[in-house]
Amino acid sequence: MAWVVLIVAGLFEIGWAVGLKYTDGFSKPMPTTLVVGAMVASIWLLAVALRTIPVGTGYAVWTGVGAVGTAILGMFLFNESRDVARILCILLIVAGIVGLKLVTPNP
């Protein structure tokens, strides 16, 4: 269950990272409120997951999920680069996330 919580925390991280683009430097109240809410939810869920998952693994997976999701959404929402090298680097992050899951004992 801790892994599910950790992945959801990563999804909230994607939400707030992408949402920052819409806050216009925290000058728009509604997007800012949603981003801050997603930040709090993300950190809280990470803390819950870290009760049983080692901190190094949990933090690396959390940031990895956030980085991969944010990069992919950036490609689609903001027309960011989709070149092969970038996609291969994203796949390396995914491989690292999967590898950490495979070598970390289940709580």
UniProtKB/TrEMBL annotation:
Q: Which UniProt keywords apply?
A: Cell membrane, Membrane, Transmembrane, Transmembrane helix, Transport
Pfam families, sorted: Multi_Drug_Res (PF00893)
- The answer to whether keyword Cell membrane applies is yes
InterPro entries this protein is in? Answer: EmrE-like, Small_drug/metabolite_transptr, Small_multidrug_res
Instruction: Identify the GO cellular component terms for this protein.
Output: plasma membrane
Annotated transmembrane regions: 33-52, 59-78, 84-103
Entries under Gene3D superfamilies matching the protein? 1.10.3730.20
Cellular location of this protein?
Answer: Cell membrane
Q: How does it sit in the membrane?
A: Multi-pass membrane protein
Q: Name one GO biological process term.
A: xenobiotic detoxification by transmembrane export across the plasma membrane
MF terms per GO, please? transmembrane transporter activity
Coarsely, its chief localization is membrane
Family statement drawn from the similarity comment of this UniProt entry: Belongs to the drug/metabolite transporter (DMT) superfamily. Small multidrug resistance (SMR) (TC 2.A.7.1) family. Gdx/SugE subfamily.
Q: In its UniProt entry, what is this protein called?
A: Guanidinium exporter
Protein encoded by which gene? gdx
